Amino acid sequence: MATALKDLYSRLANIYTAINPPVVSKAVAGKDGAATQPLRMGILGAANIAPLAVISPAKSHPDIIVSGVAARSKAKATAFAKKYGIPHVFDSYDALINDPGIDVVYNPLPNGLHKEWTLKCIAAKKHVLLEKPSTSNEAEAKELFAAAKAANVLVLEAFHYRFHPALHEFAYHLHDLMTGTNPMMDCAAHLVAPAGIIKEDDIRFNWKLAGGSLMDMGCYSTSAVLYTMRAAAGTWQRANWQERIEVQEARPTYFTPTSADLRDRQKVHLTDDQSPGIDTAMSATVLVPTPRDVKLPCKVESSLAETAFTLPILGWRVPSLWRSTPTLKASFKDGSTAELQNFVAPFLWHSIKVTYRGKSAQAHNLADGTTKYFKAYIPGATSGTEQMRRAAKDGHWPQGTGQPWWTTYRWQLEAFVRGVRAVQAGTPGHEVGPIDFINQDRSTDTPRVPVWVHNEESVIIMQTLDAIYEKSGLGKRPSKNA
Predict the structure, then answer these.
(1) Which InterPro entries match (predicted)?
(2) Which of 206, 307, 384, 440 is a Cys-bridge partner for 268, taking CB atoms 3.0 to 4.6 Å apart?
């Protein structure tokens, strides 16, 4: 009991610090020991996610400041800047992007505007932290990342959970269960928002802005199952994803507004031919190629209005507590399972639950059915091991990095800043990620980032989202002015 109370107090204290991070001095030592100026970030849009994603994390980072913001109206940008202590307000997105006082840009604009404004950042040689999903569809993603590579500009898709040590620890235990005779058989991820949290007039329900449950919650679930498959499958070549991922089934729940104005007049949820265009929920099974010459079934679930049941008489919609916990789970041939609860926000709380059966239980000298629990708020003893290197194929943090109160966004910002500095030091933008078994020939003379989300994977994720939408009958998300 005493240990449990101590752990609870520690977690609550860390959550408090995450919400109220320390403000550090904004100067870092250069190669000659002299202080250098921190990176100056500009934000496109007064987005609700910006305080959590970059403004708060930047307070505790010595090498970046949020320097400016632009919004659709200057009045909105001014109010946003005043609220969050941002020194510069720009007249337009273009003015911010082209200002020499801005080094990097955070782009949290609606999905349908990602490509247009990120391409403008690339043209201005501004490195970009790009909110997920990277674009509206696969074709746009290919165009965007090809432009970034040609210009040697860094564009990082902001799958923030991928940078937290909890996910890397989960990968370690996945790989621990996997053997040549005990392959992973399937995996699943779900992420939902309780009904009523997201209003009907939210941009997530706008077809022309590339909205939809799958594009919002579902892109997390999709990226998570692809990561899980790679961690356990023992492959480095993007799991043979040059063969296109197949969608076995996709079942959407169509979004129909209850508001007469939204439903009958604005109709932003409909396609150009007035067909249903937005999914309020999506359940899909994708078949992903593996080195075993088989395709692994991975289930993806998302919802923007999850409801467990409706209370009689009162009519209140009650969310399911279990379903509201973002969960990532993998099963193996011998019946063993590994599950990461709260994979999207593990800094608040998470649990890595591993159940050992059959050969896995024997290999660990455990009784069949034994369950163990693990967690990782900072890199632990598994960090740096050969097994971790083989499991966390997009990298992991060395011990001594970070603090237990760091949010997933703070870990992400750490990687992004290191990536920008690596490019400035001479590392090609498309090679800032960690060296692994398939790129050991790359130079180690310039800096690299321990953890990264590669542009190639961002394209694969968009490819998968397109395929799910096509299978569902809703069709892939449109490009602007298409």
Answers:
(1) Gfo/Idh/MocA-like_OxRdtase_N, Gfo/Idh/MocA_domain, NAD(P)-bd_dom_sf
(2) 206
CATH number, position 212: 3.30.360.10
Q: Are residues 338 and 381 in the same domain?
A: yes
Q: State the total domains in the chain.
A: 2
Is there a single domain that holds both residue 156 and residue 190? no
Q: Give residue-wise pLDDT tens across range 441-458.
A: 566 677 899 999 999 999
What gap in Å lies between CA 209 and CA 143, rounded to an integer?
18
pLDDT of residue 317: 54
Residues 100 and 226 in one domain: no
**287 in a domain, yes or no?**
yes
Reported as a single tens digit per residue, the pLDDT across 165-185 is 999 999 999 999 998 899 999
Q: Is 263 a domain residue?
A: yes
Question: Over the stretch 254-309, which tens digit does the pLDDT of each residue have?
Answer: 999 988 888 887 899 999 999 999 999 999 999 988 777 778 899 999 999 866 54
What CATH number corresponds to the domain at position 137? 3.40.50.720
Tokens of 122: 């690339």
| Together in a domain, 174 and 156 | no
Of 111 and 482, the one with more pLDDT: 111
Range of the domain at 363: 161-403+458-472
pLDDT in tens, 83-136: 999 999 999 999 999 999 999 999 999 999 999 999 999 999 999 999 999 999
pTM of the full structure: 0.94
Residue 410 lies in a domain: no
Domain co-membership, 86 together with 175:
no
19: buried, middle or exposed (CB in 10 Å: 19+, 13-18, 0-12)? exposed
